[in-house]
């Protein structure tokens, strides 16, 4: 017996207000992924000054990965380079764009969770003196992208609803 189509299943969240709040949460977390891409590419002067912008020959990952402390610092420091720059920027950008548009949110949940898990490991929050060794911003961001995907938040104020109506497979919405 075939599984029911996503468009025939009842809504995961039945309250219109809750669906709207989840859509706004989806859009907000998309900016968490897109902002570093913009700042590191253009050097907007927040985390990245213009002289270290990717467009000006800077490396989006070199400075961060080479300044880490903790037991994994050497491993992550060795990863810095052009390939890592491209993988990081494409991963963050594609995840952020999928969340912003509300399509591909299930794939974005997987990629976003993996990105946040790696960033969590680079910060090594388990060290003495850290603010919260278990639930910090990377963990919360990963949980948010999972909730966005599971509640089909891309269907409200996003292209996920259109994708469902035209028959795009569920994992792509």
TrEMBL record:
| Keyword vocabulary terms for this entry | Membrane, Transmembrane, Transmembrane helix
Transmembrane helix: present as a keyword of the record? yes
Membrane-traversing stretches: 21-38, 86-103, 108-127, 139-164
Name the UniProt record assigns to this protein? DoxX family membrane protein
Top-down, what is the taxonomic lineage of the species of origin?
A: Bacteria, Bacillati, Actinomycetota, Actinomycetes, Micrococcales
């Amino acid at each position: 017996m075939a599984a029911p189509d996503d468009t025939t299943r009842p809504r995961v969240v039945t309250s219109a207000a809750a669906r709207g709040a989840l859509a706004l949460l989806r859009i907000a977390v998309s900016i968490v992924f897109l902002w570093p891409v913009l700042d590191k590419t253009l050097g907007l002067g927040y985390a990245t000054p213009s002289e270290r912008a990717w467009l000006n020959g800077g490396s989006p990952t070199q400075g961060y990965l080479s300044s880490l402390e903790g037991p994994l610092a050497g491993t992550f420091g060795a990863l810095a380079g052009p390939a890592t720059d491209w993988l990081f920027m494409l991963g963050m950008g594609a995840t952020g764009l999928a969340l912003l548009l509300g399509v591909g949110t299930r794939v974005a949940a997987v990629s976003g969770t993996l990105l946040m898990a790696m960033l969590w490991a680079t910060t090594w929050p388990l060290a003495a003196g850290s603010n919260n060794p278990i639930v910090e911003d990377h963990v919360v961001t990963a949980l948010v992208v999972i909730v966005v995907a599971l509640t089909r938040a891309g269907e409200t104020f996003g292209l996920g609803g259109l994708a469902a109506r035209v028959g795009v497979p569920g994992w792509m919405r």
